[in-house]
Amino acid sequence: MSFNTIIVEKKQSVGIITFNRPKAMNALCPALFAELTEALDELESDDAIAAIIITGDDRAFAAGADIGEMSESTYQQMLANESLSGQWDRIALCRKPVIAAVAGYALGGGCELAMSCDFIIAADNAKFGQPEVTIGTMPGIGGTQRLTRLVGKAKAMDMCLTGRMMDVQEAERAGLVSRIEPLDKYFEVALDTAKQIASFSRPVVKLVKEAVDAALETTLSQGMKTERRLFHSTFAFEDQKEGMKAFIEKRKPAFKNR
Ligand code: DAK
User: Is the terminal CB of the chain with fewer CB neighbours within 10 Å at N or C?
Assistant: First the structure.
């Protein structure tokens, strides 16, 4: 796969997408959204890939939409672009686990893309924010919705209304980030984590992801029912038999993804 705004690599069973517009702090131009979508389509359909990492560079995961490209857009154009909404939500629609490995700035659309991953492993220099209000607009691809679900109303309002950034410690305390790692290690940790997830039974991983996602979409009692049914269905997999048998026999399981 060859792209201009991203780099796509495969390391064992992990697909890695790296934003590659370093001069513009990985600002998200339309070409990048299109390439990100194409890369995710390809990685999702590749049976050799079991988990995906999305990352940027040490200075920026992504500093938001490309303001230069967006500045002269009209209401009519924005509305017409709604047909591209599948691109902006492509990460969230991915059925394979997606980890955001974030260093530096994750602002505006950058923060929104990181939040649409399954979880965020961040470097100790990471900063998160929804600064759109400071440039006369507002979040448009999930900032007011995902951030509120992740960190609660008080912090989401604070960030969206003032545009202030959260440093990584605050982001971890608030529940936006799952782990903080030193800048020279965060990617390695994300890769090891993706490999660990990839070593488990793929259909089981898929159900786990589906169940956790359901928690944000439904009531507690409905979510509990969904979880119970998905739990029951793991007993239809050979991998459940193998996993438990391996535990009893004190050996590593050999999952077959079925
Ligand atoms: N767009 C374009 N260029 C950007 C950029 C951005 N968002 N962020 C940084 N750059 C460029 C700068 O212009 C500069 O370029 P040169 O001058 O060197 O050519 C270079 O990156 C380095 O930036 P700075 O010189 O500003 O570096 P600093 O270290 O001083 O500051 C910063 C770093 C990240 C704090 C600062 O650059 C900054 O505040 N950037 C803008 C952050 C921001 O406001 N982001 C939100 C953008 S709005 C949607 C799709 C997407 C979105 C919404 C809807 N749909 C399609 C529905 C998303 C919207 C947004 O994200």
Answer: C
